[in-house]
Amino acid sequence: MPFSLPNLLTLSRIAAIPLVVACLWLDRGWSQWASMVIFAIACITDWFDGYFARRYHQISRLGRFLDPIADKLLVAAALLMLVHNGPLRGVHLLAALVILAREILVSGLREFLADLRVGVPVSQLAKWKTGAQMVAIGFLLVGDAAPAGIPAVLIGLVLIWIAAALTLVTGYDYLCTGLRHMADEPARGPGGS
Fold this sequence. Notes:
Largest sheet: none
Shape: globular
Distance between the termini: 40 Å
CATH superfamily: CDP-alcohol phosphotransferase transmembrane (TM) domain
CATH class: Mainly Alpha
Strand content: under 5%
Radius of gyration: 19 Å
Oligomer: single chain
Order of helices and strands: HHHHHH
């Protein structure tokens, strides 16, 4: 089912990445809004691809592989652009680093645990983290192009730090799960590594 609706939605999320980056690169008021709208639509497809996959029994290996990659690429590209020409400077860079480091850690742990045939379900707290992160990035993408009286950058920065705090908690939970399975590794004989 490589061209099922859920997989096409996931692929559209990947295709949205250069559009978000290009709009941010232009650094104009309208392009900041365009980047936020494209980013928001891409985020919404994340919910719909999962919904359609479950509803119409179109869960595929390709979809299970691409979905988390699409999410991480979209977030990483937006964060990197916000660091390059946006408000994620100075101490706020740490929030972006925490989020990106956790994404790499969780990807590695999921790959390791998949080899052991151990699934790691997404916790409710991780869903809240993702929600805060996506809304924060949306506000930061608009940035100073927001209407007067709406402190988009401030709202985005507060939410990105909330997302970073939740990232640390959920990352620790995933790490503990992974370490438990690493500790259960069977002992090998002499010469084994």
